[in-house]
Amino acid sequence: MLDVILKRRSIRQYEDKPVEPEVVREVLLAAMCAPSAYHKNPWSFVLVEKEEIRERLSRATNFASFSKKAPIIIVITADSQSSPHWIEDSSIVGAHIYLEAVNQGLGTCWVQVYNMETPDGTNSEEYVRSVLGIPETERVLCMMPLGYPAEHPAGHSEASFKKDKVHTDRW
Ligand SMILES: Cc1cc2nc3c(=O)[nH]c(=O)nc-3n(C[C@H](O)[C@H](O)[C@H](O)COP(=O)(O)O)c2cc1C
Asked: How many CB atoms lie within 10 A of CB 10?
């Protein structure tokens, strides 16, 4: 497991090659096995493959433009009425997607939507909701463009271990 964790980087360039449906399913299975508070599993996913819709999503924030180059974008939403811990639950889901992507030889990158604005100042969640027809009751945490990597940044290493970040028994 640590090998996958060390290898994981945020990937923003993708090969022009679709991700097989059975592979997407395994990534989603990994996502759906994430722990959630009170086991509420408040999240849902919108899979976006159509180029025209990916293009619109890539305008959701100032940091999303690369999304359109991925063959598929997984949008993570959550029903905030069903759990006050929807952000935590959905974030762990995102971490599972990051790691299973690496395990499958894929790359992804978290694109923040919650608490963001479009370049012209519209709330990014509202923008994504309107592009995808997501109900008002759903919050939109992030998007995860997914594809075969066309960039291969060095992975993490033992150097990521920061002794000064760790306090034992007392701060
Ligand atoms: C909550 C969160 C929001 C992020 N938002 C974006 C984003 O909007 N666009 C982007 O390109 N990367 C985004 N990232 C990816 C980070 O930039 C990236 O994880 C960080 O630079 C460390 O690099 P690494 O993932 O390759 O280790 C986000 C990551 C997290 C956890």
From this structure: 12
